[in-house]
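Thread title: Can someone regenerate the structure for this chain?

I was given the following input by a collaborator and told the matching structure tokens would be attached. They weren't. Posting the sequence so someone can regenerate them.
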Amino acid sequence: MSIASMTGFAREGGTLPDGASFVWEMRSVNGRGLDLRLRLPNGLDGLESALRESATKRLRRGNVSATLTVKREDRAPRLTPDPAALDQAIALAQSVAARLGAPAPRAEAILALPGVLRAEVAEVEEGAEEARRAALMTAFDAALSGLVASRAGEGAQLARILATLLDEIEALREAAATEAATQPDAQRQRLMENLSRLLDGGDARARIPEERLAAEVALLAQRSDVREELDRLSAHVAEARRLLGSAEAIGRKLEFLTQEFVREANTLCSKSASVGLTRLGLDLKAAIERLREQAANVE
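Best answer:
Regenerated them for you:
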């Protein structure tokens, strides 16, 4: 069985060409369709389209969140003098010192003047940005593979649970079929007892034509006939097992199929003419509800 769950987690990190470290974290839970939420640092929004395209090729359903965290080392900015501002400051300082007959100002005093020093902005080397994006995309694909593997592992456990529940439903269906086979005789006996009470203990066969009794029993049997419901339950179990053995995303199909299971179990209970069959019908409904809950986890 190769089904996948919609629940999973993966983490992948690395180092960018500029020395910054980064981590991708991906989580997924149940969802009707594929809802991918990306949380990217400022300046990396341009990656979103490529990231979504990569994810949609590997995932079919689930609420998926992908968070990228980038950490850069705190480095003191490199200060360099502004040539024009420095020349202007030196000329002005020398002029003022000459007019006052004072010694020339010290270098640190000139450098402390506003605008003389500026923080050097590191130039981005050609191709560095492309290498940065490529590293992030490669790590994202690795995290995506980890998420797919995590969901597959969850799916293997889920498949075993679903198979066990289908076995339980099939066993209850067989027990219901055995119980239902006794209903016509039980209904006939109950009808005769009710008629005898109405006739003050008299023999109903002696006062009511056999043909009329047979017709009444046949009508009751027809109303409580659950063979079609039992046959459809068998067909649904077989189809569910076929889906579990297929290599496709079966989540939606399995959810729709569980709705058919519920419908047949409800009809069986409504047609039941015995306490035993009603009890089995309720057990069937409980098992089918557990099947429905687990099917909601399948991709």
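The mean pLDDT is 84.
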